[in-house]
Amino acid sequence: MTTLKVWDGFVRSFHWLLVISIAVLYFSIDEGMIELHFVAGFFTLALIATRLIWGFIGSKTAKLSALIHSPKAVFKSFKKPTDIIGHSAPGSYMVLAFFALIITQLTTGLMSSDGILTDGPLAQYVSSDTVDFANWLHRLNFDILLYAIGFHVLAIIIYRIKGKPLVKAMITGSKDLTAGESQTVVTKAPWLAWLIFAALLLLLIFTWAKEPLSYLFS
Ligand code: HEM
Ligand code: HEM
């Protein structure tokens, strides 16, 4: 049996770092650690921004254009599942939903306020009604994000039961090919993505993250 590299190093690291970030974002609020919440939020912002840029210049399977499928393709995929290199049609809708939910969570977070001492860096530029709306949506959207995560994990388990071990590929990057699948290189070296990520992270560290970071380490 031959194997093919389907997910490049950046997409895989992005995925698992995103999972860790969301856990930290949740627990930091639970523990009342708003500075840690902000720092984790800025980290997630750099992560998702790099993933979206990588969606234009990255590997074939990381491309945003590869996520566009007609609803018909989703039904076809459920009726007759085929082995594909990259996200399936239903999987692509799930990924797009995640991107939209995370961007909404980040944007509303930047305009939120804990009502005591800490304001998101954009809260000062908007009206108090907008801050209230952002707080409300930040809470509601997080609940929707949790449902999406539950649905996502359930779908991965169902695929596993049906004999498609997707998690292994998201960890190792490689997929075992079935007879008939062609073997062509679809991934790119991720160094450019890491360079963009480092630049965005540094920019955030020296601007918005400076204050919460100094609180965390004082
Ligand atoms: C994907 C990223 C994020 C996630 C998953 C997330 C999650 C959460 C959650 C679960 C809460 C608690 C809501 C509640 O009271 O029930 C919260 C509150 C808050 N978040 Fe985030 N957050 C994210 C990004 C951000 C960012 C980037 C900022 C600002 C830089 C931010 C600022 C805040 C503030 C100020 C609150 C407190 C609001 C209040 O006291 O009602 N969040 N966030
Ligand atoms: C906070 C929780 C999670 C979030 C927000 C999340 C989000 C995502 C996103 C955005 C992608 C698309 C990756 C990309 O193309 O950049 C993805 C794919 C994937 N995720 Fe998750 N995920 C979460 C948890 C999990 C967990 C716990 C597992 C393992 C059980 C998992 C397994 C996978 C797999 C296998 C794929 C690839 C699916 C495919 O082959 O099309 N995810 N996830």
Please give the CATH architecture: Up-down Bundle
Determine the CATH topology: Fumarate Reductase Cytochrome B subunit
**Strand order of the main beta sheet, please?**
1-2
CATH class: Mainly Alpha
Main sheet record: 2 strands, antiparallel
- Mean pLDDT score: 94
- Residues in helix, %: 55-70%
Query: Stretches where pLDDT falls below 50 for ≥5 residues?
Result: none
Protein model, in words:
This protein has 218 residues and is mostly helical. The chain has one domain (3-216): Fumarate Reductase Cytochrome B subunit, CATH 1.20.950. 64% of the residues lie in helices and 3% in strands. It is built from 8 helices and 2 strands. The protein has a two-stranded antiparallel sheet. Helix 2 packs across helix 4, helix 2 packs antiparallel against helix 7 and helix 2 (34-57) packs across helix 8. The termini are far apart. The chain binds protoporphyrin IX containing FE (HEM) (2 copies).
